[in-house]
Amino acid sequence: MNNEIELWEQVKSMLKASNDEITFNQTFAPITKIYKVQNNVIYLIVNTSLDSFRIKKFYLNKMNELLTQCAGTQMSFALITAQEVENQNKIQTQNSFVQPIQTTVIKKRNLRAEYTFSNFITGEANREAFTFSVKVAESPHVTINPFYIFGDVGLGKTHLMTAIGHYILENTPDTNVVYTTAQQFVEDFFKAKNKNQKNTALADEFDNYYRSADLLLVDDIQYLADRQGSQDEFFKLFEYLFENNKQIIVTSDRPASELNIMSRLKSRFSWGMQTDIKKPNQLLREAILRGKLKFLISDTDEVPANVITYIAENFDQNVRDLEGALRRFISYCVSFNIDFNYDNAVLALDAIISNSKNSNNSGTKLHIEKIKEIISNYFSINVKELSGPSRKQEYVYARQLTVYILKTKYNQTLTSIGSALGGRDHATISHAFDKIQDAINNDPNIKEDVDNLISTLDKQYKM
Ligand code: ADP
Ligand code: MG
Questions:
Q1: Is 129 in the pocket of ligand 1 (CB under 6 A)?
Q2: Which of 126, 252, 320 has most ligand 1 atoms within 8 Å of its beta carbon, as the pocket-test mutant?
Q3: How far is the CA of 305 from the centre of ligand 2 (A)?
Q4: Among 126, 155, 282, 290, residue to substitute to test ligand 1 (most atoms within 8 Å of Cβ)
Q5: Residue 252 near ligand 1, beta carbon < 6 Å
Q6: Mean pLDDT in order along the chain per 10 residues (463 residues)
Q7: Which burial class, exposed, middle or buried, applies to 357 when counting CB atoms under 10 A from its CB (0-12, 13-18, 19+)?
Q8: pTM surpassing 0.70?
Q9: Fewer CB within 10 Å, N or C, the chain?
């Protein structure tokens, strides 16, 4: 609770600066106690219900804004009067006669069943993290302790950490695996070691729970930033477990050196091994999609390769979104009872793709020059000729195929294709496109060229 008192004090001093003295002294200064903290809501104790009413009406929104700003995470205040607190306490003591064992504050968190090593697809971006994870799982607390996995959101940190837990449990089922998020740890700590309540049973429960771990998994440790009390507590726990040869694994969105936490804790994290997971490339994204597909439909061959390529090309920032896109595509086709084909993938996903492109310009960026280079190589011509003026038959043909592929495979507009091909106008590009479109249906050689080119690009063009 210490920390929340600190937060309230911070908000209070900001309120002091932005309100006149009388308002501040009457309204905010008298609030000095916190009743409880639950689900990121801090319950402030006010004197009367009129205070509560006025604050809610005039100041609460602003207070919540300031709080979220100070805490660095979404939090809010609720108000409870001193009288209400008293009533609550009475009810609790009465209940405690009926139900005396209401002491548990900590709920055990389970490991997600599907986050196993066998469901984790490896590639360049995560191979190192995977290899070390397997090492830790095979010989916990012997070689790598603590083990620190970092990387951007949605890249598989929680999955890998959980997989270590499953693996160890399979081999030594009596291992006590304790998984928690840092946020949950903070909440447990406040509930159990709240200075105001002096409830030693809860404090003991907290210690017993965390200290009995043989394997401690703490997810998203960056959440401890600026939470001094919780950091102290975590440090003590760390020391205790480490000295007792227990394995500790943490994940984070950044390297330990960049964490906003006390340096002695940071230095502990560098004792063991740090590894990061990077963004997956096209190849890995496609492999992950194929891996996920088997959980969604029984005959995975029903989804053609160009659909997988299309989804992987367009969701390149994190695996969670990639997976989400695949799910959306599958459920779209299933609900409309339509085939799992490319056109339907575009129908299902186009809107969210252009949405995310509009909101995030750093999204998928197409390197048209690179694509042109691959196509020229395929035809053994000089890349300049693709955009050049020459009407030589082989150049014209290569150019037309480039148009077709940029449009169908990479969703480029005719205008942007025109400018990528030496500033040709819309009509010329449109004509080229129609020509190939027709030809594909009538001339198997052209169809073969298109297919070959697409698979060459799939292999050689990585975003
Ligand atoms: P993080 O903890 O890094 O934010 P998660 O571990 O929660 O990311 O992963 C997000 C989703 O992506 C999960 O559903 C996870 O199973 C999946 N995922 C991430 N990387 C892989 C991978 N290499 N193979 C299979 N699934 C993955
Ligand atoms: Mg995670």
A1: no
A2: 320
A3: 29
A4: 155
A5: no
A6: 80 86 87 85 88 84 88 86 82 56 62 94 97 96 94 96 96 94 93 77 91 97 92 96 97 94 93 95 96 92 95 93 95 94 93 66 64 92 91 92 91 82 86 88 86 88 73
A7: middle
A8: no
A9: C
